[in-house]
Design goal:
Bound molecules: beta-D-glucopyranose
Structural class: alpha+beta
Number of strands: 49
Strand content: 25-35%
Length: about 900
Amino acid sequence: MTPYALTTEQRTTPLGLDVARPRLSWKLRSEERGAAQSAYQIVAAAQAGDLDVPERRLWDSGKVESSSGLLIEWDGPELAPSTRYHWRVLVWDQAGEPATPADSLFETGLLRPEAWQAAGRAVWIGRDSVNHPPMDPPTDHDRTVATHALPPPLYLRRSFVLERQPVRARLYSTAHGIYQARLNGSRVGDSELAPGWTEYRHRLQYQTHDVTASLQVGENVLGAVVADGWWAGYVGFDPRKPAAHYGDAPAFLARLVLWFEDGSQRSVTTDGEWMEGPGPIQFSDMLMGEYVDAQAQVPGWDAPGFVDVTEDDSPEASEGNPGGWGGRRSGFRAVAVVDETPGPLVAEPDEPVRVTRTVGAVSVENATEKSIVDFGQNLVGRVRLTVRGVAAGTRIRLRHAEILDQGELYVANLRRAEAIDTYVARGEAEEVFEPQFTFHGFRFAEVTGLPYELDAGDVQAQVLHSDTPWTGSFECSDSTVNQLQSNIEWGQRGNWVSVPTDCPQRDERLGWLADAQIFAATASRNADVSAFFARWVLDVLDGQDDEGAFRDIAPVMSINRQAAPVWGDGGVVIPWHLWRAYGDQRTLERAFGGMRAWVDFIHRNNPDLLWRKRTGNSYGDWLQVDAWTPRAVLSTAWFAKSTETVAEAAEVLGDPETAQKYRQLHAGIREAFIEAFVGPDGTVHGDTQTAYLLALGFGLLPEHLVAAAAGHLVADLKARGNRLTTGFVGVNLLCPVLTEHGHADVAYALLHQDEYPSWGYSIRNGATTIWERWDGWTEHAGFQSASMNSFNHYSLGSIGDWLFGRVAGIDQTPASTAYSELLLRPTPGGRLTWAKGSQETARGRVACGWSLDQAGTVTVTASVPPGSTAVLQMPTDDPSSVTEGGDPAATRPGVEALGNAHFRLAAGTYEFTARSTALRH
Ligand code: BGC
């Protein structure tokens, strides 16, 4: 047995952690059946070598009897700031044999906000706009919609001299806006759009970078480029800009700490000594795009040896000055200190946005004066274009679109987001343009201004998103279903940009709670979203008001009103999901007060237990088609669900009294629901698919009416020729509820449907991501209204959870957390002949898959990590036929028969076969 994938606070070797008692985890793998951890020991030390020397250890947990390696709290001495801690885990297996130990490390950040104020105090610096107003932005950038002038980003520099080489150096930095730090001519780190987006009034994240190797004896230069970003740029569809969001101008805050051999320390911080100057980026905005005039580059501005001519305005001094902007002289000048107080700074707790892959062009259509590039995939990021041998001053323009309309870019659905990047060439043999502080959602790019035909090799798309580790895979015998999984994955990538956004392309890109909560289960199949969501939950909680109401979006922006049903319930669903999927009790604890306050808010305003008042901007079953689920049915069902979740959470947190109170409330809501909405024949008011799905999925029906209600649901689907009507409130329940109630055949019919409305229809029409609406484009009506028609929304992709959970068969029992007790229910069906899924769970790798031959033999493979067990339901109507390697399954090691083709499996890898008369292919 081997421990692997060691993490601290759910991250691999994080730098700059601001958590007093970080939680340590590891996963386990083993070839052996029945492998389990019987005990562990954690030791920690200041140096890796000290781990071997007992008397030099900082912490030794001693041998702890436990089967779990999940989120074990640091119990060593109080952590010091800016300190690296090495830790090792030793584990013993079920026979008491020790395994090979595994090592990891983490490093604390500044830990206390006062650290920013310590000697060499760091203050916020920005442009001195009073004495040096920024030059007017260029006027030749084809601005179409935006009216507000976009100022150039800040180029900031600070020179300092080192007499000695430091042995260790860390840069702690952040911005009002989005920034890239520079040190001695190179970029620091690989974060994009740092510091990310949080509820800035409550929390602003700082980043930590190890810059030891970039420093030298002699002159050094620390710099930064800071653009408006979420702080001061265009955000959402709110026309108010600037100031109305967070502030009206970007600013930078940094503390570079250097440690020397003799134990002494020195800091270089943002202060009045910094200089601010011009650079090639004339403006950059996340929605509008970026304009780069490469002629305005100031060579060497961020490196030692740069001659600053700020104070000398004479033509002689101007000559040869590399700092000219647009032919005019311009130099670096003193910054303004814009704020003395650091603000609510916290260390970045999850993986930042990064460029994670490069996608090449699949084709380039060169027409007169313009080229249209197809990347073959609707994605999120930016274009990287190599420009060859054009004259200085040549202006090249990039426009972006998700889709083409008769060969031209379809940009109407971007609304006010211009998504135009401009490059003015310097006139060199080869120049590379890649905007830095903007991102777009696109599959196609139009390039104009090149005096030659663009070669496909000269253009790529850089894909960027929050770099959550990818953990899941699903595959099956049907290419359309595989394309659906791919569309779901790309939707997740593209919309995981610091916050879970609804869409990445138009003037919106907001953290809508409903979209996120409906998709959360699917998201955690594909990737480890534990740290990402745990951070966002804080934004959700920050948005809650004194009455207990959440907001529809987090961070709160554009719309600041009490949340609608389903939207606000995201504040309950997501912390609970983090507990279920990852065992994150700390986030559940943190969120519990807010979860409860939300339910109390609904209850207070709806004492008759039907949620009809204070429903915010009640969106209903958003984007349903050809159906109208009554709002009160939907909201009351969700009131019940959230109340039940609060009861379960109270139980987990060791408060049975509170649990009992909410269980009672839940029983009352359920009764009220039945009384108001359920007919004696099992019809649910509204008689829509979503009405049945909510009632069945949330357990709101009297037992004797369950089958009848499921029958009404199936009848509605069949009457429509196996077509759905759900919007994104019902859609995530559709296939799971059908399967649960014995109608997997209907779920598969929906999966394989390719007539409108269906997932297959979008795929048949070229979708490479999940569309916002079923009718985003149809043969009968063309494009839906451009006012709301994104081709990259993840919510309708929430079927992904069912692909993993029922088609491949990976799930967990209701009482299990973090997949401690797997529920493996591979479900052959539809036109599939095989399917398989795998997931790196918090405990280790889980896999399940099946294949079916023409004779009706079904083979199931499964992997259960050490420490977990599984209940496997073999898909067969002949339980006696289940064998492994020719022997009856029940006689195999690690297997216990539970009857009816159900087996309990210990950790290990299994391959079972069975005969089935029902499942012939
Ligand atoms: C967003 C959604 C969101 C909705 C609220 C839309 O503009 O794109 O996905 O949940 O508004 O109804």
